[in-house]
Amino acid sequence: MSRNLSMLEKSWLILDAFRPTGGPLRLMDVAERCHLPKTTTFRLLTELIEIGAVTRREEGYYLGRRLFELGSIVPLERDLRHAALPFMHDLYEATHETIHLGVRDGLDVVYVEKIRGRESFSLPSRVGGRLPLTCTGVGKALLAYSGPELIEEVLARPLRGLTPHSIVDPKRLEEAIGQIQAAGLAYEREESQLGGACIAAPIFTDGEVVAALSVSVPLARFHPTRLAPAVKTAALGVSRAMARSL
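Below the sequence we write its predicted C-alpha cells.
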C-alpha cells in the first residue's frame, strides 16, 4: 500500500474482496486479495460479522444479509428498478431474450437488474457485477451520453478487451460513439461474449443519462431491425416513468 489506510478503508477492502460471487472465501483468500495481514483481516472480519455485514459458515465467509438490505434501498437504483421492471418484462415478452438494466460507476457498467431469456446463453453479466463500459451495449450507450469529459478520459486510456472482437482502438471507439449519438442506440457484437450480440438504449432523467437498457441474444438470432424499435421504446418508457416519479 502507498499510504496507511484507515480502519474504514480496510473494512471496505475486505467487503470488496467478495466480488464477484459473495463467497465463500477463506481467511487466507480475503487477506491475499486485500494485501492485509491475516491478524488484521481476522479482526475486521469478526467485527463485520458482529454488525451483519459478513457471515461465517462451515465452508467459509460470505457477505451478510445486512448489505443486501441496505443495497435494496439505495434511492437511484431502487427508483430505477421500480420504474424499469414493467418495461423490462414487456421487452422480454416481446423478444423472449435476456434483458439488462445497468448504470455507470466510473469506467464500468454495473448491472442493476437482469431477466434471463427462455433459451439463455452464457453471458458474463450478473446483477451487481461490473464490466468495462467499452465492451458492452449498455456500457457504450452510457458512455456515449455521459459527456465529452468522460469520453475524452476513456479514449486517452488503454482500452480493456474481453474478447478478440472488443474495440481496443480509440479511433474505432470514437467512431462507434458518434454512431450511437446519431442513432440513439448502441450495438455490440461478440465484444463481451463470443457468440453473443446486443442492442442498448439510454435512459434519461432531467436530460442526463442515468442508466441504459439492452436486449442480448445469440448472434444467430440477432435481427437489429426487429429488436431496435422495441429496445428504444422500452428505454423511452422508463425515462418517462422516471420523470413522473420525481
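The chain has a mean pLDDT of 90.
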